[in-house]
Amino acid sequence: VKVKVPFGNKYLDAIFSVPEKKPTYGVILTHGAGGDMNFPHLVSLAAYLASHGILCLRFTCKGLNVAYRTKAFKAVVEYLKLHDDYKLSGVFLAGRSMGSRAAASVIRQLSQGDDDDDGFIQGLVCLSYPLHRPKLQSKLRDEDLLLITCPVLFVSGSADEMCEKQLLEDVVSKMKVPKKIHWIDKANHGMAVKGRTADDVMQEVNAQVFSWLRENVQLQQK
After folding, report:
1. Is CATH 3.30.420.40 what the domain over 2-221 is classified as, yes or no?
2. Whole-structure pTM over 0.90, yes or no?
């Protein structure tokens, strides 16, 4: 279902992937610095989640400014929260590369403000989180991650040129929330692996994301 999400005096293009049964939980998903919501990995993940009972709303927000993308992401969260057709118990924020930075920033800002005491945001999924620029390991983009107060899943390639394995493991070890890293063996930042098809890699990513979401939803229901 295509929708337009109000954002200031503009609209963001978005698409709902809706499960057959009424969903209880949703995922908001966005793309990296290049591309849009029709990036194959996002389309694949959205379809997989919807087929497993989780509502997925993916959106496009162009612009290479993380603060701008964060504002856009917040607008989408508000939109879904107030959406009459889907009364969700909670939502997970997810993004690929720069989109995951924006998602992390949204969660940090909301947890530090007064408006997220309702626990609507249940967790964060970072696909190919860009922890540093290529070959610039000294400047880590970890400030939002260290202040996040909800569970986090990282899915990254072990050969990601923007996320050195040991550096991410060090950052994650400092995080004070439930967290998990799933390494895609030999995958680069674009999740490409020599000798494996893109579909094969996406199946692995999708299954990992879904099983983590399911675990976290169950943990909260106990």
Report:
1. no
2. yes
